[in-house]
Amino acid sequence: MQQMMERTSRMVFDPDRVAAQFGILKRRVGGMPLHYLDSAATSQMPDCVIEAVAAHDRTCRANVKRGVHRLSEEADEAYENARAEAARYLGAADPGEVIFTGGATDGINLLANSLGQEMAQGDEILLSQLEHHSNLVPWQMLRQRRGVTLRFLPVTPNGRIDLSGLERLVTRNTKLVAISHGSNVTGALTDAGAVAALVHDRGARLMLDGAQTAAHGPLDMGALGADYYVFSGHKVYGPSGVGVLWGRKELLESMQPAFGGGEMIVDVTLEKSDYLPPPHRFEAGTPPITQAVGLAAALKWLSSQDLEGLRLHMKQLTDQLMEGLEHIGRRRKIRILGPLWGEPRLPLVSFSVEGIHPHDICQIMSDRHGVALRGGHHCAKPLHDLYGLDGTCRASLAAYTLRGDIDVLLSGMEDCIRILG
Ligand SMILES: Cc1ncc(COP(=O)(O)O)c(C=O)c1O
After folding, report:
1. Is position 379 annotated as part of the catalytic site?
2. How far is the CA of 216 from the centre of ligand 1 (A)?
3. What are the average pLDDT values for consecutive 10-residue runs of the chain, which has 421 residues?
4. Is residue 257 classed as helix, strand or coil in its secondary structure?
5. Measured between alpha carbons, how far is 302 from 411 in angstroms, rounded to an integer?
6. Fold that domain 50-303 belongs to in CATH
7. Of residues 48, 60, 362, 379, which has the active-site annotation?
8. pTM listed for this prediction
9. What is the Å distance from ligand 1's center to 81 Cα?
10. Which atom of ligand 1 is nearest to the CA of 235?
11. Which residue spans of the chain are classified as CATH 3.90.1150.10?
């Protein structure tokens, strides 16, 4: 009974206890406490993840797959265990569906290079107008190489991908629909199930950019309905330089490699090469071994949290932030992008203040209040063009964000408006 009570109390989400696991948050910036509100760009790593990375390098740093010595075998085992952990987090049917990449951008480029080999003029790829440049530029490059056509789903006034024209825009020439699972600017979430059904009905494939959604708890690839999913380690409390491209096994098996090199072949002669089956066919050269081990530790850490409690905490802080900004906005016009009150959204809020450049706000926030905010177009320039904005400020939250961080942001905003007029 005592044990059960202890276990239950350990599981309940306690923001202060979670924040205490992130040593970096104890540091000061310019003599002030740090208030880190840029987690959608890169989230911090808990100390246990930093230690997992260091422990791997301290004890079994070696290359994978090539060696027959003990360290190499252990490194290989750690790397494949990391793949299995990522597969568990994604609810993937098989660890072989997990390809380690350099990050979400790298995963999308891999897909564009691989799928692109089968595409030609007349083929269509459907994106949306709110995509991160990472899910736009690789497809523009493919258009240049292969002459494919890019089409775009529009955006609703409150920052969602507008799916009302989906039936019309997915044609019999559409090969791929590649859209964000959650916007890094508006925070809007995409109803992937509704998209998947129609896309599959038309014989096309669906890729979801999960760079912003993967950080908010384990996923279920079977239920989601996507064919491909990408995310980055550094946004899910893990290291940078690593990410995942997940793909349905039967699709990966029919895909050509995107990059050539060591580690991905069965046999090489001067004339030709035969490739390994997935996932190794897609991992040319030495993979991000230590980073994958760190990513697995991060996913394990996140999965062990009280996820319902975490979701509630994120919602309460997002509400506090939006309410505070709206309150300030009664005196000085503030425009908040994205879904309205009560609608589901990611725990990030982008906003603009009339007459004040977002970079000036971020500078004052950093220099006078110790607040880390992001300002600019957040690698979604076409979306900002659509809104007629040069840029916005973005505050983005994570498991370690506390009410006090939002309080400092809001009082700092009053200060910015006073100083910048
Ligand atoms: C929605 C979205 N997609 C893709 C990316 C690219 O991620 P990375 O730079 O880690 O490859 C980001 C990063 O901010 C993002 O927010």
Report:
1. yes
2. 15
3. 48 93 97 98 98 98 90 97 98 97 98 98 98 98 98 96 96 97 98 95 97 96 97 98 98 97 95 97 97 98 97 96 94 91 90 95 97 97 96 98 98 94 77
4. coil
5. 31
6. Aspartate Aminotransferase; domain 2 (3.40.640)
7. 379
8. 0.96
9. 25
10. 10
11. 2-44+306-420
- Parts of the chain belonging to CATH 3.40.640.10: 50-303
How far apart CA 81 and CA 100 sit, in angstroms, is 12
Distance CA 302, CA 311 (A): 12
> Considering Cα of 190, then 320, then 220, then 301, what sign does the dihedral take?
positive
**Homologous superfamily of domain range 2-44+306-420:** Aspartate Aminotransferase, domain 1 (3.90.1150.10)
Tell me how far CA of residue 355 lies from CA of 39, 89, 162, 346, in angstroms.
26, 44, 29, 27
For 135, the enclosing helix (H) or strand (E) is none
Q: Which atom of ligand 1 is nearest to the CA of 104?
A: 11
Give the pocket of ligand 1 (CB within 6 Å). Answer: 41, 103-105, 132, 134-135, 180, 184, 209, 211-212, 232, 379
